[in-house]
Amino acid sequence: MYPSRFRYEAPRSIDEAIALLQDGGGEAKVLAGGQSLVPLLKLRFAAPELLVDINSLPGLAYHKVDADGTIRVGALCRHADLERSTVLAERQPTMAAVAPLVADPIVRNRGTLVGSLCHADPQGDWASVVTALGGYVVAQGPGGRRNIPIAEFVTGPFQNALGYDEVAVEAVIPAPKGTPAGGYLKLERRVGDFATVGTAVAVDLKGATVTRAGIALTGVGGSTIDATDAAQALVGGPLTADRIDHAADLAAQAARPRTDHRGSAEYKRQIVRTFVKRILTRVHESTERAA
Amino acid sequence: MSGLFKEVQDQPAADVPTRRVSITVNGQKRVVEVEPRLLLAHLLRQGLGLTGTHTGCDTTSCGACTVLFDGTPIKSCTMLGVQADGHEITTVEGLAGPSELHPIQEGFKDEHGLQCGFCTPGMMLAAKALLEENPDPTEDEIRWALSGNLCRCTGYQNIVKSVLWAAKKLQPQDAASSTGAPS
């Protein structure tokens, strides 16, 4: 399979990249890890006139934690960097849990978190995690930078809110309102397949009390599902068995699964319930042990 | 397929923008003129004649086309040739020394780590990167590291054994003798 013809530029600065995108006038596409874009080019689902390869831009390969606990992930930070990150392992368990489950180890060496969000695949794992954590994307264009909350950033399947002359330079997870806990569980037929069901759960705890919660679902609807009712049911109290069961039921109700070759709708809904319960029960048990 | 590469080389007409790319492949500097849409896998195979890099699925699923990009395994069907400009690529042809096989190749030979052999180059390069990062991996760690490489013969058991064999062989001699390394 060969992509259609395109012009290729590998700018050395973000300003140069933005200028190229302006010249492209909507017919240009940004290339970062390329693990979704290159397959789309090969299938000719995408046929841009100009490809702006940002892999030579300096200073975008980072992920870091600010003093207040805000997490920042640059546009060239690969999944593998996050998978091996001691910072995430210590500070952000939901992100640490999903990193090793994205695609397969070789794809993770190239693919990026920010690129996953831009690609806006309804079955993307990172979108659910960033949704559960209430994150946003920083877009840089000719007029400067703006922050786009993840719910507004993804405008539809494979569509995002970036202007044609903007580059997504960073994804940001706001500082936690307590001790962050949670996880990500993914059911897949084999490594590298899309999720049959993916479930992101993120809670912040002060003592035993949940101060903030987010639950988002992958693969059980036409887009990432933000299970706000389920998350809200957890806030303000401890993670008792009853409260966990209630949240798991609400998350299962929020799912909009379809029966397909990966499983029946009923089965997928049951997996959502099981995964939410499993993650929250583990959080509860580890906080009990720590107390 | 070979048509495309010729077209790229012979037809630098104004409507076909090409770029000059300088890549170090298996330690040797190669300068080529390519159309940007040429995939790295095809550049290696048709352009440079390094047909040890196999293209299996062409959809980023199978890992047969795995090469090392500055030492890191990547799927060469999912990267453009122009992106390799200024970088180092190692293909399976770069594994063996002038007169002896690489220990990973020896391992695959000794432990019957291949049947049809189609996935083998990708498996060996992914294994090389693993052993450089983790010289003494467990069986689980090997399975995890190779989980992006598919073997349609389903010969995974012996592939894992081959990598374990190579890990022992690659360990320093004194450590190796105490763990009963292959001789």
Low-confidence runs of chain A (pLDDT<50, min 5 residues)? none
CATH superfamily of the largest domain in chain A: CO dehydrogenase flavoprotein, C-terminal domain
The CATH architecture assignment of the largest domain in chain B turns out to be Roll
Instruction: Output the structural class of chain B.
Output: alpha+beta
Task: Please tell me the total number of domains of chain B.
Answer: 2
- Give me the number of helical elements of chain B: 7
Strand content of chain A: 25-35%
CATH class of the largest domain in chain A: Alpha Beta
Number of strands of chain A: 14
**Low-confidence residue ranges of chain B:** none
CATH superfamily placement of the largest domain in chain B: Beta-grasp domain
Oligomer: heterodimer
- Round the Cα radius of gyration of chain B to an integer and report it: 18 Å
CATH architecture of the largest domain in chain A: 2-Layer Sandwich
What's a concise summary of this model?
Chain A is α+β, with helices and mostly antiparallel strands and 291 residues long. Chain A folds into three domains: 7-56, Uridine Diphospho-n-acetylenolpyruvylglucosamine Reductase, domain 2, CATH 3.30.43.10; 63-173, Uridine Diphospho-n-acetylenolpyruvylglucosamine Reductase, domain 3, CATH 3.30.465; 179-290, Enolase-like, domain 1 (2-Layer Sandwich), CATH 3.30.390.50.
